[in-house]
Specification:
The complex is a heterodimer. Chain A has helices at 7-31, 47-54, 56-89, 96-108, 111-124, 131-155, 159-167, 172-200, 204-209, 217-226, 231-271. By secondary structure, chain A is mainly alpha-helical. In chain B, helix 3 (111-122) runs parallel beside helix 5 (155-167). Chain B contains 9 helices and 20 strands. In chain B, a hairpin with a 4-residue loop joins strand 17 and strand 18 (343-349). The chains are: A mainly alpha, B alpha+beta. The A-B interface holds A 158, 160-161, 163-171, 174, 179, 182-183, 262, 265-266, 268-270, 272 and B 69-71, 90-93, 96-98, 100-102, 104, 106-108, 117-118, 121-122, 148-149, 151-154, 157, 165-166, 169.
Chain lengths: 272, 379
């Protein structure tokens, strides 16, 4: 391949990256701003990071978000995995089409509608809105994403592995936990991470279903921004970006290393 | 490795009326919806037998194997193993093990753990498991690969792990589903002999499913030829090849020439067959044929001699023209177009480097064969 650095190519790349990342870069830069005014540069400082950790409201919201994220992602992963197994393994049962439609509906449902309908439901059954209802709502809308990820892995799963385990004397439940689960575990883990991320950055559904004392971080940030953006928010967002970036980088490095190791193993096996 | 040939030669429980059947398929039928995979099939397999189910894909041979393993239940009929009816017994409680075509090795476990899996399910104590696993690894010559995972092994090594895993529990019967299908030709031939030695060494009953007739002929004590869910013939490889009982079997195994005709003379020692154009064939084994019946005479290419002149002593000799010659090194295959238009395939071993009776395209030639060279089959 002959890569020619024509003026056109360079311009498109610069514009493309600028379009995607300039806002984020600005946000990060201004989080180190000495000045209280977000748009005026007053020199380098990390004081907003310090004050961030003393902002009890933000810290509380972070803690709520983390708890909601972990609990809802875990429950959604269990339910989503079960749904995926049902959909791939039992291809004929009454109401299968309805069931698969219901599982995947939240994928395309506008968040406002999901949020509103959940709110109406919670009011109707007299459930006090708070930590419990946000978590419940997040389980509902992240479960389908887990189901999609796990289902795509199960479709390519070699059923003869399970037959071999049963043939060797393992009853069905044991076969599931010793063979099926370990083999599809990577898909389940990605499903969990996807659910956690979705829960982490959800604002709309949380706003509808949350109550006093259960303000999530996106809700907190949004409400503070309405009173004017402070560099503190910039700092909080920068930390969020850093956490996500580190996670992505670790995951991709681990993936790459596994890939290389696998290739080496296979070459070694070919040599005998 | 020590020779076990003599044991094999004497082994023929199917000829012994007092021999106890080990596996019995008793009028077994299996339907998938409207499709009948196995149709009212009865079959008996004896202990320590190396039994092959041979047939084209979709003939029901794999279904038969899966019913024995317990992955499918018969729609009708019974399967008995060592006198016990297997109906309703789930696969994990059956004393049979299966080696899968895809090997089905557990990708997240090492070779060692794969082999130990079945033993652990049995609740065998740890030290015994270790001993048995070591024994199995030695048996398949994979001692130094114990800690490897399946993806770190070559195809041949994976096949041996699958084999070790399936015999580790000492099953009453080992089922092999196309065991050598994924190996290349050379490795396949080596492994065929290894499997035979292993079967003798362990004294197990092997039931192998294959579509490769050479594989079945090499390994099996007896072969069942299957077609459309039914058994066409069960016999030793030599009987299947030399004495097929139907046109289907004669066609399915090896190459064959078929002559259609009518029985015009029938006595204890002689059967005369007359073809539509008047050509005559005399055979000494008429089988079931009666005078006047329409039959086919089947003869293998290597039993037909091709010569440029009519052999003086030949009972059966037909004249024609050389249509095609294929030199394959170890033998030469001739296609002779007889004067009545039929093309006969004949093969001759190249016993000497230069043929003393060279024949080439369009030469006049005679095909001849002995009266006992072929079989008479119903049309």
């Amino acid at each position: 391949m002959n890569a020619t650095w024509s003026r056109f190519n360079i311009t498109s790349i610069v514009l493309g990256f600028a379009f995607l990342y300039l806002p984020i870069v600005l946000l990060i830069v201004f989080s180190f701003n000495e000045s209280k005014l977000v748009t005026v540069w007053g020199g380098f400082s990390t004081k907003w990071y310090v004050s961030l950790f003393h902002n009890q409201g933000l810290m509380d919201a972070t803690w709520v978000t983390a708890r909601v994220g972990v609990i809802s992602a875990t429950v959604a992963t269990v339910l989503g995995t079960l749904a995926a197994i049902t959909l791939t393994r039992y291809t004929r049962f009454r109401g299968r089409l309805l069931f698969s439609g219901m599982v995947f509906a939240p994928l395309v449902m506008p968040e406002v509608i999901t949020g509103l309908s959940l709110l109406l439901l919670f009011v109707a059954v007299g459930l006090d809105r708070g930590f419990f209802t946000v978590t419940l709502a997040h389980i509902t809308f992240t479960m389908c994403f887990v189901a999609v990820v796990v289902q795509s892995r199960l479709v390519s799963f070699d059923r003869s592995l399970e037959e071999a385990a049963m043939d060797l004397g393992a009853p069905p439940v044991k076969t599931f936990f010793q063979i099926t689960l370990p083999v599809i575990l990577p898909a389940i883990i990605s499903g969990w991470m996807l659910a956690f991320t979705l829960s982490l950055d959800d604002l709309v559904i949380a706003s509808f279903t949350s109550g006093p004392g259960a303000t999530t971080l996106p809700m907190k940030i949004y409400s503070q921004v309405r009173l004017g953006v402070t560099p503190e928010i910039n700092a909080a967002c920068t930390i969020l970006i850093a956490v996500v970036a580190v996670g992505v980088i670790i995951a991709s490095i681990a993936n790459k290393r596994r890939e290389i190791q696998r290739q080496l193993d296979e070459q070694a096996a070919q040599r005998g | 490795m020590k020779s076990l040939g003599s044991i094999r030669r004497d082994f023929a429980p199917w000829n012994d009326p007092n021999a106890k059947p080990y596996i019995q398929f008793d009028k077994v039928t299996k339907k998938f919806g409207d499709f009948t995979a196995v149709n009212n099939l009865s079959l008996t397999i004896f202990e320590r037998e190396f039994f092959a189910l041979l047939g084209a894909s979709g003939c029901g041979k794999s279904t038969l194997l899966r019913m024995l393993a317990g992955f499918e239940e018969p729609s009708a009929g019974r399967i008995l193993l060592d006198g016990q009816d297997l109906r309703g017994i789930p696969p994990y409680k059956r004393p049979v093990n299966m080696m899968f075509q895809s090997y089905a090795l557990f990708p997240h476990m090492t070779v060692e753990k794969n082999i130990a899996f079945g033993l652990k399910q049995e609740g065998m104590p740890g030290p015994d498991i270790e001993r048995r696993v070591a024994e199995m690894l030695k048996l398949v010559k994979l001692e130094q690969f114990a800690k490897r995972k399946p993806h770190q092994l070559s195809g041949g090594q994976r096949q041996r792990v699958a084999l070790a895993r399936s015999v580790a529990k000492r099953p009453k019967v080992l089922l092999l589903d196309e065991p050598l299908g994924a190996l290349d030709k050379k490795l396949r031939e080596e492994t065929q002999f290894e499997l035979m030695d292993l079967q003798q060494e362990l004294g197990l009953t092997f039931v192998v499913v294959t579509h490769d007739q050479e594989e079945a002929m090499t390994m099996a004590d007896r072969i069942a030829i299957m077609d459309k869910g039914e058994v066409m013939q069960v016999a030793t490889p030599a009987e299947i090849y030399e004495a097929p009982t139907s046109r289907f079997v004669a066609h399915f195994v090896g190459n064959v020439n078929m002559f259609e005709g009518k029985v015009t003379e029938r006595s204890a020692s002689t059967t005369r067959i007359t073809g539509a154009t008047g050509a005559q064939i005399v055979v000494d084994n008429g089988g079931e044929a009666t005078a006047g019946s329409d039959i086919v005479f089947a003869i293998r290419p290597e039993k037909i001699k091709v010569t440029s002149k009519k052999p003086a002593d030949a009972v059966n000799a037909l004249e024609g023209e050389v249509y095609d010659v294929a030199y394959l090194g170890d033998m030469t295959v001739y296609h002779i177009k007889l004067d009545d238009g039929q093309i006969v395939r004949a093969s001759a071993m190249n016993a000497s480097r230069v043929s003393e009776d060279p024949l080439t395209w369009n030469d006049r030639a005679w095909v001849s064969f002995r009266p006992d060279a072929g079989v008479v089959l119903a049309r």
